[in-house]
Amino acid sequence: YTFNPSIVLQGVSHSRPNTEAISLCYANRSAAFFHLGQYETCLEDIIRAQSHGYPERLQPKMMLRKAECLVTLGRLQEASQTISDLESKLAAKPTLAASHFEVLQRNLHRLKTKVQKKENLSETFPAALTKAFKDMDLMEESEQIPSASSSVSLCTDPLKGRHLIATKDILPGELLVKEAAFVSVLNPGEMPQLHHGLESKWNTRVTNGDLHCHCCLKHTLATVPCDQCSYAKYCSQECMQQAWELYHTVECPQGGLLLTLGIFCHIALRVTLLARFEDVGKVVRKLCGEIGNKDICLPESENMLKTLNYDLGENEENGKIVETPIPGCDINGKYENNYNAVFNLLPHTENHSPEHKFLCALSVAALCRQLEAASFWALKPGLKSSKPKTAVTHVLSPELNIWGVVMLRHMLQLQCNAQAITTIQHTGSKESIITESREIRLATGIFPVVSLLNHSCRPNTSVSFTSTVATIRASQQIAKGQEILHCYGPHESRMAVAERQQKLRSQYFFECTCPACHKEPRATAGPRWAAFCCHSCRAVMQGEDVLSCGNRSCTESVSRSHLVSRLQDLQQQVGMAQKLLRSGKLEQAVQQLLGCQHAAESFLPAEHTVVGEIDDHLAQAYAALGDWEKSATHLQKSLQVVEVRHGPSSIEMGRELFKLAQIFFNGCAIPEALNTIQKAEKVLSVHCGPWSDEIEELQKMKSCLLNLLPIPVGPSG
After folding, report:
1. What predicted TM-score, i.e. pTM, was given to this entire model?
2. Long-range CB contacts (< 8 A, 24+ apart) of 205-211?
3. pLDDT grade, residue 33 (50/70/90)?
4. What CATH number belongs to 530-708?
């Protein structure tokens, strides 16, 4: 059975609610899930098809599928009831052709026999285990920062600004921050490539927007689309209703414009919409003070808003304005995940280029124009009966220019404060041995507490995401009084000093002075994972335009441009080998990769990243051929390259050890597998926590291997 998810997903999204078309789309999707063995999801789509008016003439087929799912899931009482209902329907009003009727009767008899056999079993089989959401909670929450551990404290000084420090000695793996995004917006994904012919007329490419809930970011194939647009999709009716009540009632008719203006403009609007539920009277006064335009500060606008439960960086005491010690905290010094904290994230208005500020202002102005034009229906949610009931009586402030100023502030904040929400994407079917995984940017969010962490090119923390929740763990031991540091992207294992400094200056407006940047840079050689080596003696080449052998007794020299050209050709050859791997031409892929390996040995050191990639691909190919020993040998070489570049305790090292454990497990190399599993668990638990998918898989492998070990015989025999 072939399941084309793009056609099914887009069919559901582009059909009108409560029509036969959408009911058939849900029914067809339920059939696909049934053949994929996802019976719970199949049942959910059957319910959705029924709720949208599935045709009476097709009901027997749907009811039979429902009964099949229930029997397979062991829900025998419900299955018996469904079978009985189907028999009654057929007896009362037979509408099927004779041949179809006979097939249906045979299937019903088979199902009834199946139910009876299961009911008569003396043993009760346990229900399939479902993986619940697991995560470690904070051991002790900070009174000052509710989303952070009591092991950290919020401080400020003129040079560092706001930052977090350790209040005690912290061990590797300790959970320091667990914070849900104040707001997150799913990245729309790459635009499909244009093709000639029929494909150019039918866009059937699946993006992240088709496979993840637009509210909670949960991965799902069984999406529930918005009734009013074909873009927004959700994992459940509850998520759809929540999104509608909080923001989608305004965003829905602006979907095309928001996609055009970009994700930062979309986030700025959503943050401003969420601010309605936290009331922003003090925001208006603060903005009026900043922009010095009294014309937009109308008394009526403040009367429309409730009294704040907290202050935005200021407090009125005896008629005087008293600044709180740290911006974003309330009058009691508490820093929470709320609009107050978001508003006080630095916009760096003076640092942005005039061109950037102009484009942001233009985007906000265009959006405000559209919102103003649409306000007539936004203020009257009852105009369209099919819309979910909104919990908001008004959407836009009459002073739309105040909304525009707030949105512009948030757009400027995002360049330095937006957080990429990432996930691991796996390619290849579950049945295929050749699968690849890569970290992708799933969404963009704002995390007020995470934004408190300063940058280091050699951070002492690691960040991971579960849906919209960010968790930050110590990646190494942190001493009491030491600053908690996060990497903004430029990391010492990925970029040279000059490149890191340039990126941090252009995006974050500061000069990095972390230990990694203070370390004396090897401008003439560079790290071994990005260097070239001498063809004659294998020493690292040094220099700028012309490279000379680092071995003084060797006179070899060559131009850098020549070696760069050779490296580009080699990478192209490796890319061709990857295509052969994906297409299942394994023997050809191995020969291509062995040729690449031979070519690399003549000018690249053994620790070069490309050399590691070649060994990794060879490990994949040999695994697919069932040669686990050769696969493990090449993967161990790849692992050495990863260790040189990223370090023995890095998340990258943990993922490579996980792969090696799988190879040893499949090859039944029990001692090697158990040893590698132990190493992988130690590294991954620090970065991902003890309840991650990888740790769970490693524990399953360990349990299976321990059962295969021979039982030791005692002295008595």
Report:
1. 0.77
2. 205/6, 206/5, 206/6, 206/9, 208/440, 208/442, 209/233, 210/5, 210/6, 210/9, 210/10, 210/13, 211/5, 211/9
3. confident
4. 1.25.40.10
